[in-house]
Task: structure prediction
Amino acid sequence: MASAVRILVDVHEQRSGIAGLLTELGAHVELLSLPAGDYALGADTIVERKAVLDLHSAVRRGHLWAQLAKLRGACAFPYLLVEGRDLDGGSRGLHPNAIRGACLAVIDQGVALLRSDSKADTARWLYRLAVRCQREAQPAELPPLVPRATVPPESVAEAMLAAVPGISTVTARALLGRFGSLAGVAGAPPEALLEVPGIGKERARALAEALGRAE
Result:
């Protein structure tokens, strides 16, 4: 009989209840402080889990890219698992184009993207990945990892702003030049946005909606 798969769970994930769901699926779960990510499924595979609104917040504040860089540095096969039925996050989320642009940027960073509709579904994904890592795929059988160039955070921010209706690449660059980052644009008051060439009231309103900021 095969031994139970071993999954290391970061202590910050304890309150999510996913560790218990993994145990019910037959995994041997250990709680500890991981240097990167939320779930270590094998020697070379780590998963960062984000609920949909947490993903929107991490993108808006600019935290996501540093987290992914840390994840990539910690393992050969990094994953970002996005949990929640509605990727758009409702009225509190980023513009649909912006969050999809962020997801594409995640893949461009060399991080595999998984979607889960619930915590139970997340547990099933994690368990299946752990089985694959520990029982089925030996390192020699895995395809070679193709290194991918890291996309600079400013390029990601530019692409996300340019996805907002009415915002061109030139205007996106002007916004980043004025406010320094996506988080800076998101936190800028409407009157400051209007000082940027190409930004009128309608485009300022579109930016506020896209970045999930109430006017």
Observations:
- The chain has two domains: 6-141, 153-210.
- The CA atoms of residues 87 and 126 lie 20 Å apart.
